[in-house]
Amino acid sequence: VHGSFLKKLEYFIEREPQPRLAAAAFRSLADILVLFSSSSTVTRRLNCVEPSSGLIEKFWDCAQRQLNANEDQEEDLDEDDLMREDPRSVMKNVCKLLYFGLVDAEDLATQVISQWVNYGPEVAEVVKATYSKVKQAGKVSHGKLLLDSLIASYEREDFEVLESEDTHLQQTKSRKLANRLASTFAGFSYTADDKKEVFQLVQNGVSYMLKEPRTRCYFSECALVPFTSKLVPQDAQKVLSKLQDVEGEISPQSA
């Protein structure tokens, strides 16, 4: 019975053309999986209906369709717009699955953390708790998780629009996300391992930028600058030397 019910939910997530109904199925699936996970007895009985990787991919595709809806379009909404699920609700449902360890954390956590600053303080608190839980579980490299999240946020930015509106890079969503993530490395909790993670994050971030300097020339300012103050002097010098070696490649003239 339970397997049949999950298959029906999967049907709506995969095929239902109405976004609102697909989102309702998405929400129900998250609630049911969390409910199943809350009882060891139930969990043992339901091993045969644990979500497959294919189902989770469909689940996230459904979430992305909701999250990609243009929230700024408050006028002239068509029927599809009116049927969209609140993206804040979508984010909370995705976080449920991550928080309770019901899905593979790596890719989904990256997408969730990259949206940390996008949906207001209520969702930010939910994402913060989810991030802490994923970090505590230790199944994903912390530095890689943060860098991948910063890259995902950066790649959603439309810099042509930002330049036309004369928007300062410090006001971009990717810069706000970087500020938020960098603030988690502070105080007595900033360990030697954290220092290594931050160095790897900045170093790999520079490598990402240099692979396509013409299109990624803003990545340092938007995503890496908030972490540079966390580097120990010798690591900061290594990063600076690397940048100086390729200075011509990322100058405004070449970009």
Describe, in plain words, how this protein is organized in 3D.
This protein starts with a helix and ends in a 10-residue tail after the last helix. Helix 7 (105-114) crosses helix 9 and helix 9 (142-156) packs parallel to helix 12. It is mainly alpha-helical. It is globular and about 60 Å long. The chain is built from 14 helices and no strands.
Topology:
Layout lengths: L1 H14 L3 H19 L2 H6 L7 H15 L11 H4 L4 H13 L5 H10 L5 H18 L4 H15 L2 H6 L8 H10 L9 H20 L7 H10 L4 H13 L10
Write the element-wise H/E pattern from the N-terminal end onward.
Answer: HHHHHHHHHHHHHH
Per DSSP, what share of the residues sits in E-state strands of 2 or more residues? under 5%
- Total strands: the figure is 0
SS element count, helices: 14
What structural category characterises the helix and strand content? mainly alpha
Taking the sheet with the most strands, its summary is: none
Q: State the end-to-end distance.
A: 59 Å
Overall pLDDT metric:
76
Q: How much helicity do the residues have? A: 55-70%
**Basic shape:** globular
The stretches of 5 or more residues where confidence is low (pLDDT under 50) are: 41-48, 70-83
Q: What is Rg?
A: 20 Å
